[in-house]
Amino acid sequence: MIPFIFKRIINLIPILLGTSIITFLLIHLVPGDPAEAYLRLSQIPPTDEAAAHIRKELGLDKPLYVQYFIWLLDAFQLDFGESFITGDPVFEEAIYYLWPTLQLTLAAIVLTLIISVPVGILSAVYKDRLFDQVSRILAYVGASMPSFWLGFLLIYFFSFKLGLFPSGSRGTFVHIVLPAVTMCLVYTFTFTRLLRSGILEFMNQPYVMYARSRGLKERVVIGKHVLKNASQPFITAFSISIGNMLAGTVIAENVFAWPGIGRYFVSAIVNRDFPAIQFCVLLMTIIFVLINLIVDIIYAYLDPRIRLKGDQLK
């Protein structure tokens, strides 16, 4: 298992380097002068002399490849520049805003698992019965409902009408409930149907029928023999959704005034805060590739053939 994990980690290095290069080039190919953007955000008149001084101070007068290598060397020291808006180090600002986003995403993930896994199993066990039919209807409704509209509905009923939860901001535990529910419900019933389909696919496999013939209880057959194999497509879709949830926090954070990395990133784009944009893209890439690494490790644990194949390719 260790050689398999090491090989996956080595494969992540060119992905991160490629992402940093592409992001760096795209930011500098966007029309507009970064020096003028810096002066505007600093409320300094963007004269030619001031712009030339800022270009020299920020190193923007150097060739593009030199700027990239300077940025890369600084990045290895966790120095990603200073924000054009606040003048504070981008790394410290982004990490400060990242924690609320991770809290919100983790809460949405936990809620999704708590709901989708038991509902998916029960829908497969009680196929075509009332429980399965109700979950199917809810799946269609949940998959087609825009998350921002769902967020406003939750605020209207549970905040304004019932007064059970606050309508926004971040504070106590109750502040996270509505934004987490908004994020998770869009995915929950889709995963429910996916897990149901996977379980039904393996329910009539020979090894499952043999397990039943040995007199094992149905919950043991499903939990030990069916669920392990049926969960692989579920894990794949769920791992992809974690990235989507992180990206989707932009909507939830704006609807519920949640101070996370999504709002920080949008603010950086609007204000052309290039150091903040560069680091936010790199940070999201790191999170995505780490999620993929964890999923690969889980796959290798569930299916030893993947691990053996990876070890043979080293």
Protein architecture, described:
The chain is mostly helical and 314 residues long. It has 2 domains: 77 residues, no CATH class; 180 residues, MetI-like fold, CATH 1.10.3720. It has 13 helices and no strands. The protein is flat. The model has no long low-confidence stretch (mean pLDDT 78).
The overall pLDDT, averaged over residues, is 78
The name of the CATH topology of the largest domain is: MetI-like fold
> What count of helical segments does DSSP give?
13
- Multimeric state of these chains? single chain
What's the level 1 CATH class of the largest domain? Mainly Alpha
Rounded Rg: 24 Å
SSE pattern = HHHHHHHHHHHHH
Largest beta-sheet details:
none
Classified in CATH, the superfamily of the largest domain is MetI-like
Count of the domains? 2
What CATH architecture of the largest domain do you see?
Orthogonal Bundle
Q: Could you say which overall geometry the principal axes of the C-alpha atoms support?
A: flat
Structural class label: mainly alpha
| Strand residue content | under 5%
Provide the low-confidence segments as ranges.
Answer: none
User: Helicity, in percent?
Assistant: over 70%
Distance between the termini: 12 Å
Pfam family, one: BPD_transp_1_N
Main location: membrane
Family: Belongs to the binding-protein-dependent transport system permease family. OppBC subfamily.
Domain ABC transmembrane type-1: 98-299
